[in-house]
Amino acid sequence: MIYNEQAIAAFERRYRANFINSLGGFKSLVLIGTKNRDGSENLATFSSLFHLGADPALCGIILRPATDFSSTLDNILEQKWYTINHVSPEFVHEAHQCSAKYPKGVSEFEQVGLTPEYLENIPAPFVQESKIKFACSFVQKTAIELNGTTLTIGQIKTALVPDNCLKEDGYIDIEEAGTVTSSGLDSYHTTSRIERLPYAKP
User: Fold this and answer.
1) Which helix (H) or strand (E) holds 94?
2) What are the DSSP calls for 116-184, one per residue?
3) 61 and 48 in contact (C-beta within 8 Å)?
4) Residue 111 and residue 40: Cα distance in Å, rounded?
5) Is the distance from CB of 180 to CB of 88 less than 8 angstroms?
6) What is the pLDDT of residues 112-169, one digit of tens each?
């Protein structure tokens, strides 16, 4: 089947969301931990994390338009810190539940049964159950007028990686860590490596 612009636009709204979200293939699945000035913790499911550069160490996330239920962007702008936590198969159901629209001020940690963890000088909560996780300081945000989303860029300040997952050349073996990936809006996957290849040259 070939789906042109008119056919895609004619899809029922939820059908179109599933179609477009699946079209790009596998995506990173992470939980973003934040906290507001009153001490309320927030944990949100994201599949829009992407690498921006290694020097300086930057990553970006896309946040949907703010609603009465969304706290992540407000907390990032308020505290200037957030954590990014990989998801393992052992708590994929809890991670999925973090995408529910809990009211502001309600802790997803408490609602789904995950454990907040803190490191000195980092005000945002990590997910204790997560094997690979890192903390970012807020650097920049850009409004994307086309659909009301926001690109948020953070600088990676601290990373926690299990010793057995870090290879001699700096490669982090996320498959060894059991990191889960996602496709579409609600499908979760483990991976199987084909191989690592040498640096490509002409």
Assistant:
1) helix 92-97
2) EEEETTEEEEEETT-SSEEEEEEEEEEEETTTTEEEEEEEEEEEE--GGGB-TTS-B-TTTTT--EEET
3) yes
4) 13
5) yes
6) 999 999 999 999 999 999 999 999 999 999 999 999 999 999 999 999 999 999 999 9
H or E element at residue 57:
strand 57-63
Catalogue all structural domains in the chain, each as residue range(s) with its CATH number.
25-187 (2.30.110.10)
Please report where in the chains the tokens 């809990």 appear, as a residue.
Answer: 102
Strand 41-46, strand 187-189: pairing: unpaired
* Inter-CA distances, 172 with 18, 84, 159, 161, Å: 31, 15, 11, 8
Q: How confident is the model at residue 64 (pLDDT cuts 50, 70, 90)?
A: confident
Q: Which helix (H) or strand (E) holds 89?
A: none
In 10 A of CB 49, how many CB atoms?
16
Residue 4 pLDDT greater than 90, yes or no: yes
The whole-angstrom separation of Cα 56 and Cα 49 is 17
